[in-house]
Amino acid sequence: MTEALAEVAAARVVSVVVVVASPPATRSRSRRRARVVVLAAVATFLALQFGLSRAIEADALPVRDPIYSEKFDLLRTHGEFFAASPPRPRLLAVGSSRTLLALDADALGTKLNAAVFNFGCHGCGPITTALSVRRLFAAGVRAETVLIELHPAMLANHDPPYEHRWLHEYRLKSDEVGVLRGYGWRLPTPVQHRPAGWLETTHTYRVAALDRYAPELLACPFGMTLAGRTDRFGFVRGADIPPADRRPALLRECGLYLPAFAHYRPGGAAVAAVRDTIDCCQSHGATPILMLSAESSAFRSWYGTAGNARLREWVDHFARETGTRLIDAREWVADADCVDGHHLTASGAEAFTARLAEELRR
Q: Can you tell me the distance from the alpha carbon of 26 to that of 23, in angstroms, rounded to the nearest whole number?
């Protein structure tokens, strides 16, 4: 045992002697190589961050706003919406998940002998709609008519707008921050648009990038979009749920929108965004039509008597002021055809689309 310990000690002494005796030039070269490796790694990281930031800003990598990008990719397959002289009139419907689940664009187009596309997006209110319409026209989309959904709860006069719960800052282009401020939203400069914001590109857009290019790696199996559920005309067919599940679903929506119903009154940035959407449509030769989306009797009751009266008064005045046609669809669908008070079942969407076709024929 004593001999073994002596051998180990001797080996350590020899290794120390070898290190100490190594030529200074060798140690210097090792340090330089290590420094070069570190600097190369840092430079590669910075170049990757900067390149990704520029590519995302230019939409070469469409991960800034996955919800919009998915819908726009689908719209691009409909050449009529980009044609200068289409064979038939075109109608583009924009709005929230209410429109997404209510308007069967294929069926409506057949009834009207028109090209119809449903650009409804989940989590979309009047402000997100305004940004989407701006982007669409800038991308060369054309339509004779734009059906603009009015989501009454999202029109509530809040500061910040109630929609900020869904419209996350990372989804904005650099020039869109000023647009939202123009609506009256005192929005701080998002991290990714600050001078050093490009350093956080991979962190900011990591989930969106996985959602588009490697969804199997996402922790959430459902992803950020509705890929696989949307038909080629942008419509998602709703599903019936058992009667026992409807009341819990209704109560969940009540909890989600309860702050919007307190002292309800339309106004603020949300209303400014609707006005901008109308102006944008008219400046591009499209006729805007406003549509109050369908709600169950229980959902409508949450606004209160005074809130419903204020909504009615505001929307009538706003339509007259802007010279825009208004379609009031709040009571079009039976309560049984609402999954959770404002999203429609498949049968509800069928009834809604048929009624909308009648209204538009006028």
A: 6
User: Could you tell me the pTM of the whole model?
Assistant: 0.86
State whether residue 49 is helix, strand or coil: helix
CA distance 250 to 257: 11
Distances (CA, A) of 242 to 20, 62, 245, 250, 338: 79, 38, 5, 13, 12
Distance, C-alpha 150 to centroid of its chain: 17
Measure the CA–CA gap between 351 and 103, rounded to whole angstroms.
10
Ranges 64-68, 238-242, 277-281, 288-292: which has the least confidence: 238-242
Q: Three-state DSSP class for 161?
A: coil
**DSSP for 176-245?**
HHHHHHHTT--PPPPGGGSTTGGGGHHHHTHHHHHHHH-GGG-SSTT-SS-TTTB-TTS-B------HHH
Crossing angle of the two packed helices 105-112 and 346-361, in degrees rounded to 10: 30
Report the run of H or E that residue 273 belongs to, with start and end. Answer: helix 268-283
pLDDT digits (tens, 9 = 90+) for 164-214: 999 999 999 989 999 999 999 999 998 888 888 778 887 788 888 878 887
State how far the Cα of 296 lies from the Cα of 86, in Å rounded to an integer. Answer: 38
Cβ atoms of residues 259 and 164 within 8 Å: no
